Amino acid sequence: IPSRLPDVGTSIFSVMSKMALEHGAINLSQGFPDFAIDETIVHLVHRYMLEGHNQYAPMPGAPALRQIIARVIRETYGHTVDAETEITVTPGATEAIFAAIAAFVGPGDEVILFDPAYDSYDPAIRLNGGVPVHLPLQYPTFAIDWDMVRARITPRTRMIMINTPHNPCGVTLGESDLRTLEVLAEQHNLLVLSDEVYERLIFDGQQHHSVLRYPMLAARSLAVFSFGKTFHATGWKVGYIVAPAALMQEVRKAHQFIVFSVNTPVQLALAEYMQVPDRYLSLAAFYQQKRDFFLEHLRGSSFEPVACKGSYFQLLSYKNISRQADTAMAEELTKKFKVAAIPVSVFYQDRTDNHLLRFCFAKKEETLAKACEILRKI
Ligand code: PMP
Ligand code: GLN
């Protein structure tokens, strides 16, 4: 039986985390926090379970959770969404992305995405028969070249995918990017799939430019978010997607047959937990401090940082250390020096190798300090 994805192996995140474990390396590869989550929310989940909230949630998500999400979106982005028809809770952003693509991308439909791209985008497009059109972000700024985008739009272009703050580059899109996208999407009748899982992890006083801030853009966008990032619980796999009702109706047709619904007690706990704004507003300062701690402790190292404006990833260039391929460098770093990172070339369709490694700084200070002590000596 022919494979639908003959070129796809195991995700780099599994590969590097396994290697880190086997070689006793400090794992700064796969993106997840190594510190405890707030006990308050753990107790809430426990309480909801004990109270008997253990059966299927409604297909689009627990109403209480959708209501608080709608309120936070209104307060954060000045955008009014109907909790009933325009928000769907999903098992992480991954399924939200897949369901959005399954709903709108069919055989031969082209989807524009930017490399380096998060690893689930391309296979999700292809599994649904779509044609991924990979365009490189400009090097070394990792900005979008909008002229290139304009030149690559065809009558088959159905969707354009953006990601801000960006994984793995840590760059953010600004108002002019969103305005340009708004015009292009309108002119060519495109849908926009906007991956905003790092919306709260944004640094140096910037504001996050969500598609939801731009009414004309929001009218043709599917925006994806993840509680895994915001509340340090990647293992809970809960996120959500926001889209106008007519689009959401189609997304739900796919979602209901991919997973149907998301676990009930965690949704109810999240709904209660989110009532206190500081719990999500404090994220930017929290992670900015971690970024700065990591960079400070790297001072004097031969690794060169690329500016990180958001997300919990720091790119480091190793050009001054070695000219070997980034996959080989990541392997050597993990096995010999005991610090695991992600080679960035795996996020490029053509495996462009700029000698960059991605380090996750969502870690305890002691973990970061230990890793930096090693990195400074290389
Ligand atoms: N998009 C991006 C850019 C991500 O970094 C991640 C998580 N690493 C996801 C989507 C998936 O999020 P989730 O774990 O909520 O499925
Ligand atoms: N999003 C996380 C990262 O970029 C990993 C997610 C996963 O392991 N699938 O590291």
Automatic annotation (TrEMBL):
Listed InterPro entries: Aminotransferase_I/II_large, Kynurenine-oxoglutarate_AT, PyrdxlP-dep_Trfase, PyrdxlP-dep_Trfase_major, PyrdxlP-dep_Trfase_small
One matching Pfam family? Aminotran_1_2
Q: Which cofactor does it need?
A: pyridoxal 5'-phosphate
Q: Which Gene3D superfamilies match?
A: Aspartate Aminotransferase, domain 1, Type I PLP-dependent aspartate aminotransferase-like (Major domain)
* Domain Aminotransferase class I/classII large span(s) in chain numbering: 26-374
EC no. given is 2.6.1.88
Give the CC-aspect GO terms.
Answer: cytoplasm
Q: Does the keyword Transcription apply?
A: no
Q: Which GO terms describe its molecular function?
A: kynurenine-oxoglutarate transaminase activity; methionine-oxo-acid transaminase activity; pyridoxal phosphate binding
Question: Does Manganese show up as a keyword for this record?
Answer: no
Q: Which CDD domains match?
A: AAT_like
**From what superkingdom does this record's organism come?**
Bacteria
Q: Which UniProt keywords apply?
A: Aminotransferase, Pyridoxal phosphate, Transferase
Q: Which family does it belong to?
A: Belongs to the class-I pyridoxal-phosphate-dependent aminotransferase family.
Name this protein carries in UniProt: Methionine aminotransferase
